Amino acid sequence: MRTLCSSTLIGEFFVIGFAGLVAMKDPDLSMATVWTVSGIAMFLCLVLCGLVTRPGGVGLGWALQIALIASGFIVPIMYFLGAIFAALWWASVHYGRKVDEAKARFAAQASSSTPDAA
Q1: Which of 25, 75, 87, 105: CA 20 to 30 A from 36?
Q2: What would the pLDDT profile of 72-82 be if each residue is shown by its tens digit?
Q3: 9-23: pLDDT as tens digits
Q4: Are 103 and 26 in contact (CB under 8 A)?
C-alpha cells in the first residue's frame, strides 16, 4: 500500500505546486498567502508518504484529498484534478491493501512449507 499511496502523494505534490503558480495570477491573493498554503500542502504530501502505513495516515490522506478538491474555489480546475486524485487515492488504498494481503498470504505459505530433504 505504501508504494501506491506514496506515488499518488508525489503526483499531488507537483499538482499543488503548479496550482500555486496558477493561483498567483489572482489579484486578490498575496504571493505569501498562496505559497504558505501551497507549501504546507506540499510538505504534508511528503510527510504523508512516510506516515501512510501508520494509524491515521490514510485518514490524513483523505483530509488532503478533501482540501485538494476544496482548492477549486481558488483555482477552478482543481475541482476536476482533486476528484481525479481522490479516485487515485481510493484506488491506491484499496488495491494497496489487497497487494499487502496477498504478500502476507504468500509469505505465510512460504514459511509453512518445509523444504524436502533429499
Answers
A1: 87
A2: 999 999 999 99
A3: 999 999 999 999 999
A4: no
CA 87, CA 104: separation in Å to the nearest integer? 26
Question: Please, what is the Cα angle at 112 between 98 and 53, to 5 degrees?
Answer: 30
**Distance (Å, whole) CA 65 – CA 59:** 10
58 is written with which cell numbers? 490514510
Closest CA to 58 of 117, 6, 115, 112: 6
CA 46 to chain centre: 9
Contact (Cβ atoms closer than 8 angstroms) between residue 18 and residue 57: no
CB atoms within 10 A of CB 13: 17
Q: How many residues does the chain have?
A: 118
